[in-house]
Structure formats: structure tokens, C-alpha cells
Hints:
The complex is a heterodimer of chains A (316) and B (488). Chain A has 316 residues and is mostly helical. Chain A has 17 helices and two strands. Chain A has a two-stranded antiparallel sheet with strand order 1-2. Chain A starts with a helix and ends in a 6-residue tail after the last helix. Chain B has 488 residues and is an alpha/beta fold. Chain B has two domains: 237 residues, 3-Layer(aba) Sandwich (Rossmann fold); 227 residues, 3-Layer(aba) Sandwich (Rossmann fold). In chain B, the strands form four sheets. Chain B has a six-stranded mixed sheet, with helices on both faces. A six-stranded mixed sheet of chain B has the order 16-17-18-13-19-20, with helices on both faces. The longest helix of chain B has 17 residues. The radius of gyration of chain B is 24 Å and the shape is globular. The two termini of chain B are 31 Å apart. The chains are: A mainly alpha (316), B alpha/beta (488). The interface between A and B is medium-sized, with 30 and 35 residues.
Amino acid sequence: MTRSLLSSRVFLGSVVVLALAALVPFLGRVVPFIAVPYALGVLTSAYYFGVFAMSWDLLFGYAGEVNFGPTFLIGLGAYAAALINNILHWPILPCVIAAAVAALAGGLMLALPALRLRGPYFGLVTLVAVLLLQDVIVVFAHWTGGEIGMTVPDVLSISADTNYWIALAFLVVSAAIIYGYARSSLGLILQAAGQDPVEAAALGFNVAKHKLAAFSLSAIMSGVAGAMLIFYLGSASVDVVVDLAIAVQVIIAAVLGGRRTILGSVIGAVFLILAGQVLLPLGQLSTFVVALIALLVILFFPDGLLGQFLHVGERE
Amino acid sequence: MRTERLAVAGLTKRFGGLVAVKDIAFALHDGEILGLIGPNGSGKSTVIKLIMGIERPTAGSITLDGTEIAGWPAHRISRAGIGIVFQHSRPLHRQTVLEHVKLALLPDSLLRLAADPHVDARARAIAERVGLERVLDRYPGTLPFADLRRLELAKAIARDPSVVLVDEPFAGLTASEIAEFAGLIRSLRDAGRALLLVDHNVKSVAALVDRVLAMYLGERIAEGSAEEVMRDETVRRVYLGGAIEAGGRTGVAEGTAAPLLEVDGVSVLYGKAQALDRVSIAIREREFVSIVGLNGAGKTSLFNAISGFVAYSGSIRFGGRNLATQSAAAIARSGLVQCPETRELFGDLSVRENLELGGSHLGATERAEQLAWLLDLFPILSERAQQAARTLSGGEQQMLAIARALMMRPRLLILDEPTLGLAPVILSQLSKALARLRETTEITFLLGEQNVTFALPHADRVYVLEHARIIWEGEPKRFAEEAGAAYL
């Protein structure tokens, strides 16, 4: 198992990509005209976004549940961390742990009743949850800053380089956890439960338990990533961590990268954020172009960018 | 005396008003194969779902080794020692055969991230036992149908269950594959397991089973050895009908013009399963033709090919025109209408709205006339006109489905298993309505049935479809002696 993993295409590819990512901060010494701090900033956001998308793919690709509101979990973590940092003045690490607890608790409150529902209802519940969270934040504007958002006293670092390294390290650790889970025995059971719950139960697997475990992991990773993102940005706002537009972007990133690949989600996220920046001169048109590219990939390569590359020869 | 492994008593299941299983009782011993037999809709599949915990029983007891397991969730029942081989499988696309077998061996724990080292060897041994050793590293998408069935069997026996439930063991298999599968099932029995085989007729499992329990409309109708059950009067009546009335009539022009519908050498493949194998039939204008065949024989596939719902090879001509190039909607508009087995009613719309949708291409006056005529033909529907279709009983839903198809003013009406799951009293109402349609309209009928009693009285001509092929054609009165034996 370990041997096959080390020699697999995925592992080799990841090492190469990681090496390239580690070179980015040193680009300025080779190509002087690139605005390195700017590029690092964009990639830093993209890496946190990658963790959002990986957490989402664990639910969609493996557990077979469509979570239309990933930003419910992300936003819960982000705002829990921001509020505690502001009001109780806890340092960053306890705030991040609190974010994980908040996202897990909120996620379970949502998932326990929703996973009992069949068909599209789980997705609808998650969608409504995002709108509720957004309303709560706006209603309690006194503490949360409402639509404008709130600044946090502590930030991870003011150095673009340090922020980049933290985000990259966080991405690697998250990927190892989520990808490891997905490739383990638990991931296999989860896939079986997602594809055919009746047959999985007949094989002796408690389908609800496995789905709930996956949902919990997804919630914790989303909440922590949300908290990390606001401590990087120095502020929490609805537009950045809660809005449905962000939820849709997370979903597009995961699908673009490739359903059921986990690591593809990172590629999708980086692609989406970079494309948004590169196309910035187009103004309003840039979101249109990005959406169009996403649509074309989904229509013509439904397995996604990474899925297309990995899964040759498994079908007839 | 062998150990009693599984005991079922007073088992009952209701779905709303429908009683799918009624007071079923039996015992299953180690090293024994029990056949659970019944026509479509008899409740036999529901019985194994109740045992497996996929459905919860309404009443009754199911004990495994003396422990009451009725109402337990499926995963607990599986761990208690019952395995099931599903008729349809949906394997994972990205896992190999070996990985599928390993999956079945994993513990249901959130703390075990990797399989135990011995799992690999066990999985290989199980795969070898069912004959999958050549394809261990292949993906399910590339396997022939028989190997997919073997994979299902491997998963079901992976946890070493003491009781194995098998849903339609031989569906879709060729004769030589059936022999191999029967051998596998026998070897499981010889290893001391208790097996319950669910199938449509006694004949297909007669050589394998120690005992047979026959069901009809949710109730036990006979029990005993395969020979005893095949001789049983009630079983004969259910499968063959008491005295089969031959209903040939005069007045249908014979061989004068070209047939209205000509099916010539039509084959249908679903992935690897051959659903139809070079089937040819011809139906003349105003004729009533019944196609008789057991479940899985290919009736629905034939009708779906004619209606343009599935791809086929061969040719189908209707009124002289080739249908291959036409869409399903165009075929229906040209007067070739199917009333499908699954009825496909719009459940939330009222009876009247369902009918009006069927006649949506007619002018207002025509539609009103057609509606009045149909409500006269099926009086129960006019009583229920404002009710949502979903709330009708099975028989009423079937009448609505037929009436909606008739709203389209068909030249040829295909009725696929209209008697599915219906009580005898409804059958006679339906039968009268068909007789009246046959006498008073110009419509040509193509009826697909496994219920021979229902299919024969109306028919001018009968085809028998078995394992994707037409094996007999003739008048209804010759059916009992020439082809009836296959229907027990």
C-alpha cells in the first residue's frame, strides 16, 4: 500500500507541484519585473480556497452528498474566530481551535436532521443555512460589523513571504489529512455508502455513521481554513467567507479540478483565483469568462482537470 | 435434525393500503436451499428485504439463531450473519474487483484506517472461490455480466454469513453460466450455509432447491418439494389459469394486407446483457396479440424498442414506415402508444388532469368526446376525477394509465404487464374493459403479460418470449398443451 502510494502518479505529481510552489517566493531574484508580493498574496488566498474545495469534495465525491452551502461551515469558523479574538482577546491558536469546534457543532446541528432526509433535501437545507448565517451576522451587526465586516486585532504575519509559507504548509497538512482519509479504508466504505447506501448497509456498514464522520471532518477543515483566512486577511466579512457567490466558487473549484480526486480541488481553486486575477483588466467580463471556462470544462470534461488525467482506462 | 438457522413467523408488510406480504412463515436450516417462488408483485422480493432489514416489517417475527432481528437496521443484520446477493449491482467504477471484495471484509469502525494484513489473502481466496481469480485487477466497467454477478456473490459471502439470500440467481445469464452459478450455490449449501433463493417460477430452480414456498399476492399458496409445488392446484391456477379460455374470434382479416406492425430481427443489448435476440413478430390491423413471458424474458425491452426508447439492431416498421429514424415522441404521435409497466402517472395531478394531458394534442370538442367515452368505459375514474392520481389504488391507477394512453387515440396500443400486482377482482374488471375495447373499437392491441390467465382470453394470437427469444407462436387454444409447462 505504502509502496504503491509513493510510486503513484499522484504522489510524484504532488511533489513536483509542491517544489514549484516553494520556488515562487524566490521568483523575484530571477525575473525582476514580476510583482512577487502581489503574486504571493493571490496564491495565499488560493491555498486557503483549495482547502475549502477539498473539504467539499470529500462530501460530494465520496459521501455522495451535495453541500450547497460550504460557506456555512467556513463562515461559522471564520466568524467564531474573529469574535473570540475581538471580544475575549484569545491568541490565534485557541481561536482557530474554537473555529473548528464552532464549525463542527454548527455542522452537526445541520447534518444530524438533514442526513435523514432523502434526495435533494440535504442540499436545500445546507443552502438555507448559508442564508440564515448571513442574516444572523447582519442582525447582530453590533458585534459582527454586519455587512461591512469586522477587523481582527491579531494577524498571522505582516510579511507576504511568511503568510505564503503558512498557507502552503496548512494546505499540505490539510491535503494529507483529507486525501489520506479518502484513500483509507474509511474512504472506500464512504464511497460505497455514497453510491449505494442499501448495499453498503447490507455489507454491514453503518451508513449514517460513516457519512456523519465525513461531514464532521469536512466541517472541521472548512472552519479552520475559514479562521486561517481571516487571520491572514486581518478582517472577516460576509463577502469573503459567507456569501453564496463564494459557496458557488468553492463548488466550481472542486468540480473543475475533478470530482472524487480531492487534490484536483486545489488545482481548481488555484486556477479559479488566478484566472480571476489575470482577467481582472476585463472588468465585469472577467467573472463571465471564468464562469464560461468552468462551464465548458464541466460539459466536456465532467471528470475535471485532474480526473481526466487520472482515470484513463477505468471505463469501458 | 439439522440446526434451525432462520425462522420467520407471521411476517406482514403494508405499504399504505397495499398489503405486500401477509402472514408469511417458514424455517430455514443449515445446509438447506429454500426456493421462494411467486409471479411479479407476489411480495417475494419484499420478504427478503424484510429479512435483510432494508424494509421494516409491519408485524411478525424474524429470528436468527433464536435472536429476534425483525426491525433491526440492515448493517446489524448483516453483522449478525445474513448476506444478500442483489439482482442489480452498482459497483464502484474506480475500484478493482479485488478492492471490492476487500471492501466487504473491512470492519465497520471509524478508527481503522487500513485493512488488516490478512484481508488481502482472504479477499483473494474468496474471489477464487467464486471464479474471479482471472479478473482480480480489472475494473467493473470492463467485466462481462456473469462476472459482475460473481462479484456480488463474493461480497455477500465475504463476511462468512450463515444465511445467504439470493435475488433471482440466474437472471440475465446464459445456459452454461447458469450451470456454473448453480454449482456455486450448491457448494455454499454443502459448506453448511442456509440459502434462500427468490425466483419467478419453480422450473428455473427446481434442480437446486430442497423445498419450495410459493407466494401469490403476498400470501403463501403452497409449500413442499419442487414436484409437489408444481403439481399443486392453486399454483397451476395462478400460473396457468384454471380452464384456459381460448378467445379467438372471427372478423379479423387474415393475411390480406401488409401487417400494421412488423418487427424484424430486433436485438437489444444492455451493456453486456442480451435483452432481445433477433426477435421477429408481425401484427395485423385490428388484431389482439399477446406476448407471454416471465419476468426478464425481454417483453419490456421489445416494447421499448418499438416505442423508440432503447437502441436496437434490426428493423421495426409501423404502417409501412421505418421507425428507426423517428423520435419516441413522433412514434407516439403517429398512433403507436405504449402504456408502460410502471404506469408513469403524474402522481400529484388529478385523474382528470392526467387524462387531459394525454389528449393535449386533440381539439377541445374531440378531447371532451374522448374523455366522456373513457369515463363511461372506466366508471370508477369519473368518481375519482378530482383525486390526485397518487392516491388511487393499484387497480385504479392501472385503469387511469390505460385511459390516458387511449386519450392519445392510438392505432396500436401496447399494454405492458397491466395486471402487475393487482387483485383478482380488479383483473376481471380490467378484463371486461379490454373485451369491450376489442369489440367496439378499431384499435390494434399488443399485450405483454406473465399472467397467462389474463393474456389468453382476449388474444387472437400468442407469442411466447423466453430468454430474449421468441420460442413459440400460435393460437391461444393450443397454448396449454404446447407451451404451458414452462409457466409453473
